[in-house]
Write a structure and sequence with these properties.
Number of domains: 1
Number of strands: 0
Shape: globular
Strand content: under 5%
Helix content: 40-55%
Largest sheet: none
CATH superfamily: ACP-like
CATH topology: Non-ribosomal Peptide Synthetase Peptidyl Carrier Protein, Chain A
Length: 83
């Protein structure tokens, strides 16, 4: 599971997700309001917050499809940065 700040970073980009709705690993972020401009802004915010750089192969709609997919990518980038 992700750390506490991950949901705080991602949730504002999900304009169709009610405040009291659960933020789950399987949540469809596009259905919840994440659009292409939001993806770019979210990408920048995650890179700055987690001090990572998204690689070309991580820049796909699949990466931003669900919180689980995005967190797996962020975790992998963080692990690569530490190595």
């Amino acid at each position: 599971m992700w750390d506490d700040r991950f949901e705080v970073i991602v949730r504002p980009y999900l304009g169709f997700l009610p405040e009291d709705a659960p933020f789950t690993q399987e949540l469809d972020m596009r259905d919840a309001g994440l659009d292409s401009l939001g993806i770019v802004d979210l990408l920048i915010e995650i890179e700055n917050s987690y001090e990572v750089k998204f690689t070309d192969d991580a820049l796909s709609l699949e990466t931003f499809s669900t919180p689980g997919a995005l967190w797996r990518t962020v975790s992998g980038l963080r692990a690569a940065t530490v190595s």
